[in-house]
Amino acid sequence: LYDKKYVLMLSFITEARKLDFSLKEIREIITSLFEKQSKTEAEQLLEQKVEDIQHSIQELKKRKAAIQLLTKQTLANIS
C-alpha cells in the first residue's frame, strides 16, 4: 500500500525520535537521504550526532568525578 521509500522514512523517524534526535536533525537527514539522494551528507550528519554524544559522555564523566570528589571532601570535613 505504501511506497517503500515512505515506509523507510517513517521507520527512520520513529527510531530517531526514540534515540532523542531533534526534529531539526531528523529533517536534515531525511532531506539528505530522500530528497537530495546524498548518502554522504546523511552519513556526515549521523557521524556528527555520534561525536556529540561522545562529547556529552565525556562531560558527564567529568561531572560524575567532580561530584564524587565533592562528596568525599564534604564527608571528610564533617567527620
Total tally of structural domains: 1
Overall pLDDT metric: 94
Shape descriptor: elongated
End-to-end separation: 70 Å
By secondary-structure content and strand pairing, the structural class works out as: mainly alpha
Helix/strand order: HHH
What do these coordinates show?
The protein is built from three helices and no strands. The termini are far apart. It is elongated, with a radius of gyration of 20 Å. It has helices at 4-18, 23-35, 39-78. It has one domain (4-78). It is mainly α and 79 residues long.
Short overview:
This protein is an all-alpha fold and 79 residues long. The chain has helices at 4-18, 23-35, 39-78. It has one domain.
Note the topology.
Blueprint: H1 4-18, H2 23-35, H3 39-78
Features:
mainly alpha, 3 helices, 86% helix, elongated
